[in-house]
Design goal:
By secondary structure, the chain is of the alpha+beta class. The protein has 5 helices and 8 strands. The N terminus and C terminus are likely disordered. It binds calcium ion (CA) (2 copies).
Length: 195
C-alpha cells in the first residue's frame, strides 16, 4: 500500500512537471513583414494573454498592434492557411494581439474601452473590427481568428497562440508628424516671446 502511494505520488509529480513544460513552450510558426515591421506567429498549447505579452517582450518585440485595416489584412492574409492559423471556428485557433480592455473589472461589451500595449491610439478601425456579438464581456485581452476571419474577439482564457510585432513605436510616419508638431510649437513660442 505504501509503495503504491509513493508510486502514485511520483507519477503525479512527473505529470505536473511535464504539463508545466508543455504549457509554457511556444513554437515558431511563420513570419511576415509590413511597412518595415516584422510579425511572428507563435503557437502554444494554451497560453494566457499576460503570459503571451511577457513572451513577446522577451523575444524583443510586443504583442502585435493592428491599428489599420491595411496592417490587419497584411498580417492576417499572410498567416492564414498555415499549420496553426487555419480558417476554423474555435478558441484554440485564436492568436493574442496587443489589445487589452481598459474597463476596471477587465470585462466589457464596449468596443471603445480598449487600448494597445504600445500606447498607440485605439483607432476608429479598431472600434469597428469586432466580430459578431463581440466584445461579449469575456475580456482580458484581444484575439484575432476566433471566427476564421480578421475580426477581433475579446477573450479571457487560454488560447493557442500569439502574434509578436517588431518595429519602432510610433512608426516612422508618426515620428515625423510628432517632430513636425514640436518644431511648429517652438517656432510659435519664439515668435510670441521674441526669442
Ligand atoms: Ca503595429
Ligand atoms: Ca468574446
Amino acid at each position: 500500500m505504501k509503495k503504491l502511494l509513493i508510486t502514485t505520488g511520483a507519477i503525479a509529480i512527473c505529470g505536473i512537471v511535464a504539463s508545466g513544460i508543455n504549457a509554457s513552450a511556444a513554437t515558431f510558426v511563420a513570419s511576415t513583414t509590413y511597412n518595415g515591421h516584422t510579425y511572428e506567429l507563435w503557437a502554444s498549447r494554451a497560453i494566457l494573454w499576460a503570459d503571451a505579452k511577457a513572451e513577446a517582450i522577451a523575444q524583443g518585440g510586443y504583442l502585435a498592434t493592428l491599428t489599420t485595416l491595411q496592417e490587419t489584412l497584411a498580417v492576417y492574409d499572410s498567416f492564414i492557411g498555415d499549420d496553426f492559423f487555419t480558417a476554423n471556428d474555435g478558441p484554440q485557433y485564436q492568436a493574442w494581439l496587443g489589445g487589452y480592455t481598459t474597463a476596471p473589472n477587465q470585462t466589457t461589451r464596449d468596443p471603445t474601452a480598449w487600448a494597445w500595449v504600445t500606447g498607440e491610439a485605439w483607432s476608429a478601425f479598431d472600434i469597428s473590427n469586432f466580430g459578431p456579438g463581440e466584445p461579449n464581456g469575456d475580456s482580458t485581452g484581444l484575439t484575432i481568428n476566433r471566427y476564421g476571419t480578421p475580426q477581433w474577439n475579446d477573450e479571457g482564457g487560454l488560447v493557442g497562440g500569439y502574434i509578436v510585432e517588431k518595429g519602432a513605436v510610433p512608426d516612422s510616419g508618426s515620428s515625423v508628424a510628432l517632430l513636425g508638431g514640436v518644431f511648429a510649437t517652438v517656432a510659435l513660442l519664439r515668435r510670441r516671446f521674441g526669442r
